[in-house]
Amino acid sequence: MRTLQVALAERSYPIHIGEGLLDSFPLAEQVSGNQVMIVTNETVGPLYLDKLTRQFDGIQCDTLILPDGEKYKTLETLETIFDALMSKRHSRTTTLIALGGGVIGDMVGFAAACYQRGVDFIQVPTTLLAQVDSSVGGKTAVNHPCGKNMIGAFYQPRLVLIDTRVLDTLPARELAAGYAEVVKYGLIRDPDFYHWLETNNDKLLSREASLLAEAIYRSCENKAQVVVDDETEQGNRALLNLGHTFGHAMETATGYTRWLHGEAVAMGMIMAVRMSCELGWLDPDLESALTALLARWELPVSVPEGMTPDQFLDLMSMDKKVHNGQLRLVLLKALGQAVVTADYDKGALDRTLEAFCGV
Ligand code: NAD
Ligand code: GLY
Predict the structure, then answer these.
(1) What are phi and psi of 334, to 5 degrees?
(2) Ligand 2 lined by 184 (C-beta under 6 Å)
(3) Taking residues 120-141, what's their average pLDDT?
(4) Are residues 148 and 180 in the same domain?
C-alpha cells in the first residue's frame, strides 16, 4: 500500500492506494463513532458491499443501495439518504462511506456536508475517474435541472481508500474515460508523467496492475498538490478543467447521452492543445501524439457530426469561466504549463473550431 497526504491543516487526510485494500485495510479503526452508513448503487453494491460491511462487525453498520446513473444525482436522491440516516437514528458522530464512482462520491459527500451540519465521510472510489479525480479534493454536489453540479459544497473526506483491484470489473469504456483525466495531469503540470504515460500506454490499456497503480498514485499526487494550493478554486484549481469548456459544449450539444464525461474531456483536450499550437505556444507534434495516445483507448478524436463553430461559441459562452463577457480557457504555454486566460488571439479559437468542424 502507498499513502499520500492531502495537506489541508486540520482538514488533512490520507489517500491509501493498493491492491486488495477492500479486504485488507482496517477501515473500522478509522471511524471515530459507533455508527456508519455505506451508500452505494445497484451495480457496485452486489460486487463490493459485502466486503466492506464485513469490516464493521460490532458497530451499527447500515447500507443504502441507490439506483445507478447520473440522472439520480439529484436533491430527491439526497433526501433518500437523509431519510435512511434519520430512520436508523444516525447521530452527529456517524460516518458516511461512499462506495462507487463519482456520482455516488459527489452525492454522499454533499449529504455528509449537510447532515446535522456536517458528519465524517470516507471515499471508497470504484471507477478510475473517481480514483484519480472526484474522490480527492472535496468538491461535492448534486445536479439541478438547469445545470450540472449546481448545488453543492466544498467538503473534504476523512480518508480516501483506493483498491485498484475493483477496476477489474470496470467496463473498458469507463476505464478509458477515467484515463482521459489521468492524461490531463501530465498535460497541465507533469511532463515527466505525460512521457511515462506515452511509454506505458499499451500496458496501461491492457490493465497491467502495477502500472495502473502507479498512474493512479501520480494522478492523486498531482491532484492533491493542486487542491492544497487552491482548495476552493480561486485560481489555479481551474487548470484541472483543461478541455472541459470545449467538452461541455459537446456534451450539451449531444444532450449528455452520446459521450461519457471523460470522453468529452478527451476530445476537448485535443482541441485545447490544437488551439495552443495555433497560438504558437506548442509544437504541433504534441497534438498528433496526444490524438494517437487517446485514440488507442478508443476515446473520441473528432467532434460530433454536424456541430458548427457558432454552436461551439454559443455553448462555450455559458461556461462558468466566463468573466465580464470574456471567455477564459485553459490552454498550454508548453507541455506541463497550463494557464487559464482570456488573453489569446480570438482568431486562433476560430481557426481551431473551423478545423475540427470541417468548415
Ligand atoms: P459513475 O459514478 O456514473 O460510474 C460509472 C459507471 O460505472 C456506473 O454505472 C457505475 O455504477 C459503474 N461502476 C462503478 N464502479 C464500478 C466497478 N468497479 N465495476 C463495475 N462498474 C462500476 O461515473 P464516474 O465517471 O465515476 O463519475 C462521474 C461523476 O463524477 C459525474 O457526476 C461528475 O460530475 C463527477 N465528477 C466530480 C468531480 C469532483 O471533483 N467532485 C470531478 C470529476 C467528475
Ligand atoms: N475535477 C475538478 C476539481 O476537482 O477541481
Answers:
(1) -165, 170
(2) no
(3) 98
(4) no
